[in-house]
Amino acid sequence: MKKLLLGAVIGALIAAIGLYVYQRVGGSAAPTGPVETAESSLTAASKGKIDAGASLRTVKMAGSILTVKDGESIQAAVSKAKPGDTIQVMPGLYKETVYIDKDNIAIVGVIDKGAWPVMDGERKLNDAILYSGSGIRIENMKIVHYKGNAIMGQAGNNFVIRYNWIVDTGVYGIFPQFGKNGLVEYNVISGIEDAAIYIGMCDNIQVSNNEVFASVAGIEIENTRHAIVENNLVYDNAGGILTFITPGLPIKTTFDVIIRDNFVVNNNHKNFGAPGSIVSGVPSGTGIIVMAADDVRIEDNIIRGNKNAGIIVADHKSFANITIDPEADPNPDRVSILRNFFANNGYEPIDDVKALMALNLTKQGPDALAIGGGTGSCISNHGSVKTLNMGSWADCGNATSRDVGSLLLPKPVPARVMGAMEQHELGPRLYSGICAGCHAYNARMIGPPTQIIQAMYADNPQGIADYIANPVKKRDDFPAMPSQGHLNEAQRLAVAKYMLEVKQ
Q1: By three-state DSSP, how is residue 500 classified?
Q2: How many Cβ atoms sit within 10 Å of the Cβ of residue 44?
Q3: Distance CA 239, CA 308 (A)
Q4: What's the pTM value of the predicted model, to 2 decimals?
Q5: Which residue intervals of 382-422 are DSSP H helices?
Q6: In angstroms, rounded to a whole number, what is the distance separating the alpha carbons of residues 442 and 425?
Q7: 159-208 tens-digit pLDDT
Q8: Where exactly are the structural domains of the chain?
Q9: Among the listed residues 223, 202, 297, the one whose alpha carbon sits nearest the alpha carbon of residue 257
Q10: 418-501 belongs to which CATH class?
């Protein structure tokens, strides 16, 4: 009966979402130290006893309002702003890169009669907004035609990124890395050659009510812990929602991830990721992928029309373009697939899936497929779901994530203060918070692997430090690196030395 009811309301719900999207992009005003154990998230807030997200959603900047008008510079306003200030951006065209290296700054666009503040990179500029401060809020901005990222965070905690419209911004749309306690909601993002929303090496994250489409990956949760992905519309990507452990990064785990109440439909776009990158190995036509991540709950999603498979759960050895990290567990453990609605998945699977179908003597493409190792996983209503290689999976019974209201924290966490660290801590922390999101140790990401940088610079840390301050484009197959000139000379040299020393 539940399935019939869900099927009956699919059309109505999608129509409602379509109306919302039309209103959002068509002119109506929009509303104006990593944790290492899963047990640590089991707080009163995570069990739904309080609204942990309220500490981010309702925060009000206590400072002044600085208004930027068409023809003026957003960066100039940021340079003048003090912590607690709001930069109000009026409708107009802004061709610039904005860097925020202060805490508690808000950039809030004003949408007037359908006119947005538009940041346009003209396919010349690399990044639209980069931030390293904590307590950053970015709202109501239209960002188009950049080559690298629309919004990228570097070790900033307590961030809020919402109500933005992002189109064709290169590698990533929204990319916070090494941040704690962050909210990404009500954004519309398309045309991204890696992930529309990419959460990298973060803790305590909420990704909700976004629309992501026409990208290689819709939403990617990578080397991240304590995250909820819910109420998103994810369609026409090569892969819909990805939950990964990427080898070679400083954070070696992904766990305690809830993926629920999402529309994951028709993710059949051609994969146009950079050749050799991890995301280029995502098979087109896949709704949800769990790779090596633990304690992932996939619950009450509508997963429909994904031609390869609805859900794939895989280990590192089974995935394309993956190098093995001896410090990272390669297997997905304790994955729960709970009461999802599946329809018309697996109707045109890739050759590897066809081979598994032949081995299992079935002509039906899968709603859900497991490849490789992993233990302790379960699936609800096993007999009503088209599965492959899940014969050993247990029945989940009445398991649910509904007692978990939020994994955001009830109070803001302290900012990461780089300059206050001991010298031996400075290099590793800067590398984790700034460098590793683009440079994994031995895997291709947005930038070349750290191993290649080590070979290029050998015993020349000063060369890396100088390049960090004033980078120039060196390779056609990678976007230009954003300047890290906000780092002082000592910080640049510390991270350069560490980059040459790091192993895995």
Answers
A1: helix
A2: 11
A3: 10
A4: 0.84
A5: none
A6: 22
A7: 999 999 999 999 999 999 999 999 999 999 999 999 999 999 999 999 99
A8: 1-56+180-416, 60-134+136-170, 418-501
A9: 297
A10: mainly alpha
